[in-house]
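In the design runs reported in the main text, the only information available to the sequence generator was the tokenized backbone. The following block is the verbatim input for one such run; it is reproduced so that readers can re-run the procedure and compare outputs position by position.
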């Protein structure tokens, strides 16, 4: 992996505070996967390819998949399985679901039996925290909660630094201890959100499902988190701007 030079301390401090404010203002969240009537399409382009597409609401956004494969039935089976995987992983990492591991961790401050997938995503979050010098931080939930609370008031006023400063003591992935599939917070009141990393991870897993069905040519777009494989119907690399079709 290419080595990235550490960011200067002054840059990290100023940009980290700005990022925390922005994260809270946006109220980022991995909303529960919702089953709605999904749009689907199957088109025969030629003897070589069938184009199978499906769009539905998942992870709090619109997720669309486009597959190119000789077998329409195999493509439809694969796309259904990929959406099932998205639903399964979303349920594991959804901080709004009272039964999810993330909700339990935020409530109890520790868990001793994380699923492999949740442990892997948290581990990657801690890695990118170090790699970015603290800019990327999964422990920003307390500041997000503060902004959500303040912005629901009638005045819609962004919290003042006086309110933000005490909460900053709860922020920092260096205060998270992960050993294998056990995790604990070093300070009470901490909380994590995987909103900044889980969606991309889940999209990658969905792509792996499609590849396991030998669907080499596919595109997944989950609200801007995009994964492509192979080529489009013109046998050229996918063009993201118009899905390459």
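Verbatim output:
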């Amino acid at each position: 992996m290419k080595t990235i030079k550490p960011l200067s301390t002054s840059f990290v401090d100023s940009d980290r505070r700005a990022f925390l404010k922005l994260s809270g203002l946006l109220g980022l969240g991995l909303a529960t996967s919702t089953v709605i009537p999904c749009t689907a399409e199957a088109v025969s382009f030629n003897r070589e390819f069938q184009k199978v597409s499906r769009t539905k609401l998942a992870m709090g956004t619109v997720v669309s998949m486009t597959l190119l494969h000789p077998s329409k039935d195999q493509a439809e089976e694969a796309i259904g399985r990929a959406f099932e995987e998205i639903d399964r992983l979303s349920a594991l990492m959804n901080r709004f679901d009272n039964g999810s591991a993330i909700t339990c961790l935020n409530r109890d401050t520790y868990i001793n039996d994380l699923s492999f997938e949740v442990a892997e995503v948290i581990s990657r979050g801690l890695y990118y925290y170090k790699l970015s010098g603290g800019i990327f931080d999964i422990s920003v939930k307390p500041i997000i909660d503060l902004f959500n609370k303040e912005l629901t008031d009638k005045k819609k006023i962004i919290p003042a630094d006086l309110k933000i400063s005490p909460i900053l003591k709860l922020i920092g992935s260096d205060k998270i201890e992960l050993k294998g599939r056990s995790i604990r917070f070093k300070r009470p009141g901490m909380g994590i959100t995987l909103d900044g990393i889980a969606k991309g991870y889940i999209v990658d897993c969905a792509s792996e499902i499609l590849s396991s069905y030998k669907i080499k040519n596919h595109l997944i777009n989950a609200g801007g988190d995009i994964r492509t494989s192979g080529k489009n119907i013109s046998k050229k690399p996918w063009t993201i701007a118009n899905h390459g079709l």
